[in-house]
Amino acid sequence: MQIISELIKYHWQQYLKTNKFVMPFAALIIMLYTIYSSKPVGVVDSLTSSCLFVFLIASWIGISACALEDPASEQVIILKIKSHKKYYFNHTLFLVSLSAVTALISTVVPILINLSNGGRLFNRSLLFSDIISGFLLLFLSSFLGCTLGELSHPRMIQDRKSALLIIFFIDIVSVIKTALLTSFPILKLILWIVPPISLVPTAFTNSKYFMWKTTALASAVLILYSCILAFLKIMLLSKRKF
Known about the structure:
Oligomer: single chain
Radius of gyration: 19 Å
Strand content: under 5%
Order of helices and strands: HHHHHHHHHHH
Number of strands: 0
Number of domains: 1
Number of helices: 11
């Protein structure tokens, strides 16, 4: 446990000592302000729509996080803990904590805006279950985006321009996946492979409240896909030596 906490702390220090975190989180605040600048808004609609934007921003965060890794320091730490997989697993835990912070901001900001407007931001009263469900979906959407962005790791895709274009393309297709499948059903033969982030707003279409079964199903799908991406990165980087 001590090694895990120390490595997560190390990754946070590496991330925060640069200015790479400023732009994504600034974009997050702007996005939240844009979504909640008009009132009233639907509780479920606004939170599930936020998941799409959080996914995109988290993908950006994942790209910047993996680009900050110093190969020399990475090798020294791996030699010290004697395990490539342990190092990359701990980096995934860092992404989990980063996703939690992103989700917390995305959940707290509308709550504060609602309070400052005398509870008139939403078209109904905000329930505790809304906060829990919203945070969970935002957290998992963020983690999904981070794990996707991490696939642009320099040792996996050396050409940085190509890496950014690939991730950007996957991001866009993932967000508009539902619309694409509606217009071109045949695309389901290939689009099953892209991140299922569009499932979140689609699953709650016309829902006034978060239903626990729907929330659980959407969460399970996001968790499964995120774990697959994280596992893929860990295995590829463990095999591709420096």
